[in-house]
Amino acid sequence: MILMENLKKKYSKIYDQYIAKIYRFIFIKVNSQEIAEDLASETFLRGWERLKELDGKIDNLPAFLYQIARNLVVDHYREKNNTNLVSADSSQIADPRNDLGEKVAFDSDLRIILATMTGLSDDYREVINLHYLDDLSIKETAQILNRPEGTVRVMLHRALKELREQLKG
Amino acid sequence: MTEAELIKKIQILNQIEPRKDWVDFTKKRILGVKEERRWDAIFSVFPRLFPALKPAFAIMGIALIFVVTSGFAQNALPGDFLYSFKKLTEKSHAIFLSENEKPKAQLELTNKRLEELAKIAQTNQTQKLAPAINEFQASTVEAAKNLAKVAKSEKNSKIVKEVVIQTQKLEEQKKNIEALGIVVGESEELNSALKELVEREIKDTENKSLSEEQEKVLESAKSDFESEKYSEALTKIITLSQQ
Questions:
Q1: Is A130 inside a domain boundary?
Q2: Cβ separation of A24 and B30 shorter than 8 Å?
Q3: In b/e form, how buried is each residue of A17-54, taking b as 16+ CB within 10 angstroms?
Q4: Is residue A100 part of a domain?
Q5: Residue A112 has pLDDT above 60, yes or no
Q6: What's the rounded mean pLDDT across residues B171-188?
Q7: In Å, how far is B145's CA from the nearest CA of chain A?
Q8: Where are chain B's structural domains?
Q9: What is the CATH number of the domain that holds A168?
């Protein structure tokens, strides 16, 4: 009983700290508020179930949650039978909620950067998201992506280069 | 562009945030089991004390939850968790209205949708803009249906006056919102229903004997009608009927 209460407290803290990050991580991949909410809540639900099963013995819970989120996005697109992870239509990204977005004056910088991110590969988008948006270290990013730290550094360098070129174009 | 500038640009994406009510709701759904049990325990005491009254307690409980939630929902905006509850409450009120009261009530609701839109724009809740515009447009379609009925039914000056007041308010609010840079779009259905109503009112007025001064007002109303300024035309015709 005490263990369960402690687990809850621990998970509650992690939830408060990471819900916005995980949501954004998913949102940038799926460009839909509804789907991002569904997958983010499923991520935290699965994380909680697993934590209970293992009596709280998960080494790096945030990294574990990112892994679940990544897998859920992959499953989501597999179910939808989509080959591309993101739509190429940038107008859908400008207002991710529905097609009325064109009528609404959204922050143009946000629109541009979101649309440009769409042009990047999923690997590049992920590495930028984790390191520059979620402020994760190279080590943590490497852990989540299951890649060596050196590879992550190279990916970051190339991702920025690609993003800069696309922004110019 | 330097690397620092590029990173700064990327960090604009930090503006993407989940809805607060969804965050709270999801947390409660995953971790809030104990709280629910506590409430269950409190409510379960009453039926145990008075088993015969169990159905009555259930109905009272549902009614209480409905009243409390609808109270909270009144300030909800499109995109909020409680917004659908707010609309349900509005729909349930509409059931008790007579056919004559419906056009005014629906136009009031359309005005309410614009008030919500203005509130969203003023508080910079950009995530809610698109759903709010959708709600406004859906509401204008409903208002148009009711207006079309007015135009086809027997003439009722009271209803027409109410329509004038509400459509004037609607246009004024629309202008204010558009001044904030938000395009809510034209409602063809509403315009067409108004057109039909104004057309009928003009024909009715033409059949009356009018003074020279009143003829001028009628001509001005006709000119407004031709320029598709239906609300203004209707206002002028109403002033004629009051003279």
A1: yes
A2: no
A3: ebbbbbbbbbbbbbbbbebbbebbbbbbebbbeebeee
A4: no
A5: yes
A6: 80
A7: 23
A8: 62-96, 97-242
A9: 1.10.10.10
Q: For residue A131, tell me if it sits in a domain.
A: yes
pLDDT tens digit string along B125-143? 878 888 888 888 888 888 8
Other residues' Cβ atoms within 10 Å of the Cβ of residue A111 = 17
pTM greater than 0.90 (yes/no): no
In a domain, A68, yes or no: yes
The mean-pLDDT minimum among B53-57, B130-134, B194-198 falls in: B53-57
Which residue among A19, A104, A128 places its CB closest to the CB of B23? A19
pLDDT in tens, B85-111: 787 888 777 788 888 888 888 888 888
Among the partner-chain residues A95, A97, A133, the one whose CB lies closest to the CB of B13 is A133
* CB spacing of A37 vs B27 below 8 angstroms: no
SS3 label, residue B83: helix
ipTM attached to this prediction: 0.80
Measured at the CA of B151, the angle between CA B150 and CA B152, to 5 degrees, comes to: 90
Total domains in the fold of chain A? 2
The verdict on A12 and A65 lying in the same domain is yes
Q: Does A48 touch chain B (CB under 8 A)?
A: yes
What single-letter amino acid sits at A19?
I
C-beta atoms of B130 and A95 within 8 A? yes
Mean pLDDT over B136-165 rounds to 81
Domain membership of residue A158 as a residue range: 120-169
- Distance, in Å, from the CA atom of B178 to the CA atom of B211, rounded to the nearest integer, reads 40
Tell me: pLDDT of A108 over 90. Answer: no
Same domain, A81 and A144: no
